[in-house]
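RETRY 2/3 - previous attempt timed out on the joint model. Re-submitting the same 679-residue input unchanged.
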Amino acid sequence: MTAPTTAVHRVFVVRELGIALALVLLVGVTFAVNTRFLSAQNVKDLLLGSTILAILAVGQAIVIITRNVDLSVGSILGLAAFATGNLFVSNPGMPIPVALLAGIGLGALCGAVNGGLIAAARVPALVVTLGTLYVFRGVDYTWATGKQINAADMPHNFLALGTRSILGVPVLALFAVVVLIGAGIFLRSYRSGRELYAIGSDPDAARLYGIPVGRRVFWAFVASGALAGLAGVLHAARFGTIDANAGLGSELNVVAAVVVGGVAIFGGSGSVYGAALGAVLLTTIGSALPVLGINPFWQRAAVGVLILAAIGLDRSLAVRLARRLRGGSDRGR
Amino acid sequence: MAVDTPVREPVTPPSRTRARGVLGSWDLLVLVALIAVIVVGSLTIDGVGNPRFYRFVILEAIPIALIALPMTLIVITGEIDLSVASTVGLTCSVMGWLWQAGVTSLPLLIAISLALGAVLGAVNGIFVTVFGLPSLAVTIGTLALYRGLAYVVLGDKAVADYPISWTTNMIAPIPGTVVPWFVLVVAVLALLFGVLLHATPIGRGLYAIGNNAEASAYSGIAVLKTKFWLFVATGMVAALAGVFWTFRFASARADNANGLELSVVAAVLLGGVSIFGGRGGLLGVVAAVALLGTLRNALQLADVPANALTIVTGTLLIASVVGPNVVRMARGRLRRRPPPGERTQP
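RETRY 2/3 succeeded.
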């Protein structure tokens, strides 16, 4: 039993090291070209820029590990961001934790709608969350009716969340770190966390084994929604200006970050650490290109190449792993 | 994604069975809904009965209708192509760039665009069939790549100085009617894809691939070759949509058709095609495109804010999968289904 487990484990360690290495390489080369790339201010900007995508990626990874997908996260982010701003407009003195809880709660509610439909009505996640992508965004538009909430409408200490640092680390990034470590420990060491992987590897086998598949998937979507809600509140704090378009079109970016981070698109493998690294890498590319003297218009193309390279790498790792599990020789493919 | 089967006996994921089971004629249901929207709309909303209204609906629906045709076939084989809108954008950019570079022959511009679309589709096809990568992930990658290249080619400029005659000809009506002539192109393609899907061995093969790719391969269907050419066809049709887009809006921009991929997928799914592959038909998809377009524009005339209309699209999409399942559950488990196929997809 231990031999295959070790092999599997090693492949994943390699996979995350690979993306970390790519990140180090990118940062290193850029730093060599222009040392100001790692100035305190720029590092802070990089971390701030990655935070929201990383939080979304952690939630998305949890869902994708169960062989599902959540396309509605961009819309949930928008809804939560607008709700936060709106709450501050109507209750100027509202404490910040209340705003955070409200955003997370709203996100969790949206996630429960997704998860409930998927688990109870037994319909494919891609279709349902594509539908709720439109519905949540529509609710956001209807609620906002073209209004915009400005920094002046929100209290100072809330907006300070988006700019303040502790020991050089932006407060927003600390949120991402806490979320990441929490989700990482849960997926790695808790029984229900491990069951998410079992569900993603083979839903039918997981069911036969007695895992409550519907319930686990439901909670995975609630988690993804709650994290998207949190991302919405942080979006409000960081940008200060919110209209109904916050997070528009970000869903495929999030999936891209997760895939780049080595989470298999059909579930069962990968980690939230990889997904978060993927988010940081995608963000870093964006700011490294201009420093390297490359036309920033290449950014999206570079992201595309990175996604293709990442899934190609995963495929070859999987093929090699399968070979090793079969006993070393090169039979078959 | 088979998170949905009940605990005790193995049952096919429901959305696979929805076209066959409760609503054997999902196509018909969508058609009836379309007619209902038209009738109710023209009776209650001022302007919906007007021919100009339909001219506008049609012009708006043409790009989605075009791309939905090959997308239907791709989804039926159990794959998906999310890069189509970026293919539209890249085609627009390249056309704009060529025009600025002095290529002023319309047939040449169109030919280059279609060839470009074929290449972009072939790239998707190679990743999926030669390297065996999941199309969902591949085409999210090429979605970013092609859109990125569109920006590389044209930057954030817009090329808009095409001859007026080109842009007006593109949206000109068929003489004596208000129907844009380009609908004929869509109709011919719809007929072609419809015959291919519903009346040829290749079409039967597509359903077989969607139901069980491995079994199809063993029974002699060229699974990989078929999928490859479907991606090529999708790229070409998306490029054609790009040509239309450029002249319809008299503007080539890198961000043309941004986000259109999800509208196309929504129409295909609402049209009754199963996301797991193996089920669905072209008539339902064409009706769904028309339904979404008509409903959107009719509600807009009824002063429903344009942006809130996405709620309608989303709700229809969810209802189209949840509704049949709920009905099916309510009717009880009358029939035993064969065990699920091994391929499931998000």
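Chain A touches chain B through 61 residues (CB under 8 Å). Closing ticket.
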